Amino acid sequence: MTQNSSSIDPRVNRLHLETDDHPTPKPALDQLETFEVFHQKKVGAAYTYVGPVHAANEEIAFLFAKEQYSRRAICSGMWVAKTQHVFLSGYADDATSIYDNLPTLSEVPNAAEQSYEIFHLKKRGKAHQHAGSVTARSPLHALYVAKEVLQTSPAVNVWVIASAHVLRQEQDQDMWATTPDKKYREAMAYRVQDKIEKFKAEQKA
Amino acid sequence: MPNLAVKNLLYQLADDQLILGHRNSEWTGFGPILEEDIAFSSMAQDKLGHSLAFYSLLHALGEGEPDTVAFMRNADQFHNCQLVELPIGEYDFSLIRHFLYDNAEILRFEALSQSSHPEIAKIATKLKGEVKYHVLHANTMVKQLGSATAESINRLQNSLDYAFPYALGMFEPSEYGQELHDTGVFIGEAALQTEWLARITLVLEKTSLKLPNVSTIQPVYGGRKGQHTSHLQPLLDEMAEVFKIDPSAEW
Amino acid sequence: MYGGGNVFEATTFDNLAQEDPAQLAQFEARIARGEKIEPTDWMPQLYRKQLIRMIEQHAHSEIIGALPEGAWITRAPGFRRKLAQMAKVQDEVGHAQLLYSAAETLGKTREQMLTDLINGKSKYSNVFNYPAVTWADSNTISWLIDAGAIVNQLANAKGSYGPYCRALDRICAEEAFHLKYGHDAVVHLATGSPIQRSMIQAALNRWWPPIMTFFGPPDKMSTHTETLMRWKVKMATNDACRQQFLDMYVPKIWELGLTIPDPNLHKNEHGEWEYTEPDWAEFKRVINGDGPCNAERLAVRRTSEERGAWVRQALLAPKATYVKPLA
To answer: What is this model's ipTM?
Structure first.
């Protein structure tokens, strides 16, 4: 059943709202899967975690991530990966390192070598940053390798993602070229103090 | 020397972008999933921004201020194609419109960035990157939804069949076409339409959707000459509702 | 952006005595030394439940909060306002996305949260149950409701839960634009033509009562409140937030020559704002469904979800599996 009520919003009136009072609960995965998004502020900077998006696949995740996480921030590149492809270490206390407490790896796995991207969380509450890539035979093995070659300061949490699982978009930078021009959504473009002062002066007169 | 041919071209561009941007802004808050809601809104803002760039150029060439030109004209003074003024419908229609429109717009911008008219070339070059993203978005979503479920394929096909004659209206021949071509300002609508058909065919081939046969379709022309559907005037009335409370006021 | 100060349902006080004392002590010590809690840390049930409720309500407030200002997107006067109005409302949808994602890290799915919203089970900030009758109403919301939300958000950004803090940092960064935009629009109206001035005054008269309830009823200090403040879930009392808001914004309203429809509103000799106590009975009625716009707000959300179902279905990859987001 729909209604054509008079809302203040003409768009709402054109929607012809459904009036079903008992909508069906959403099934699992109605909102799709999640992908984790990383962005690079400028060429050469480390990729930093910015948040997740719900999407159908890496391609669409990238499109959504561009809008949600680089609307304002100038960006030179973006990476996305399925949440389920992220291997997590445990969490350590601040100022200690999870690398000091890795689960035991009794022997190097028999799998083929592949490249893994390593992301470090330096402090709880901050965001993960790309620390580098290592070659290893499993995510846990990758942590051991990373401990030797990438640990420069304490990491309270580490994410490991197989490089093959990371979709990278770094070439099409003209997509972001005009972002700084969009002043209408920058706080700095709004200056009212003059107007207020002028008004106050006029009121006094 | 600013002439009628150039101004006419600019009005067509700016009016298309304004009306489409306005229509797509109707989706903000109502989108099928939050992330797509956000994406659609960005593209709508881009369209508005593009129209403002072209209205600003028109103003530099002697036309009125962008706000006045956009908010105070009546439907018969608008030169947008009828495709963009149609109501947003459901998501399938808006997506198909976005797909058909932006695949044409990128070609238009690519052509205009080679224009002999330096200001037009400058704007087109600068804003091309944004349209490239719009095309990427449209193509990705059409490829996905055009091959997914019976319902999505059906809906998109119906919208495609409905929108296609209107889409051909984007390329309505202009009385200034020859002049614009000869002066190197713009290569012309026919060339654009041919390339556009090739591009959208390529994308649609990756789906279960069928492109209507252009030779059997009657294009819906008239928009470029100020002939519009019954949808445009109410759209303009709504758009200008607050502005017209006091057109000389600073809002 | 639109986190109302209070969390609307009374929480059953879970029995902390049933929690592992050693874990609880470690958890509290971590918070006391200023460290953030991250998703896989041990946490008491009460902490998890209260945070989910709070972040979820904040998210719902954003997506519903998009609607009153959304009503004026198509009618925004002039390019500058049109573009900015679109961007602002877009941000609200964006903030909803960020906040749902933060709540998901605690174990409630976005599907469950949206279901609870459209079924009327979960609440959102009560101010959005009122209509934005004119363009000036929209501007009033953009300025003063956002201002209220910022007071909340700045406080909560110092809270203990990592994902919520990260989301709030992103949100606060965008809020500066919202506040400036709203203020700019209100200033233009207040210093403009007689019609514009009377439009903004009328809007302010309509919105002042809901604004005064934005931070929620006066807190009753209970063991509950004390625990939540110790756990840095609740960062400031409702009254403290309200006072801060009045202190920052009443002078700014008055300097525009606008009147506030509360003859009792004044700062007393102790530097505290006194005002006519809001009608908390009305607040309760409205938040429980009996407001001018409740039905429409939920109907819009339900309709959007229903009409979009085929899209999400078609996007769903056959081998998709849900894993809650990480941070």
So the answer is: 0.97
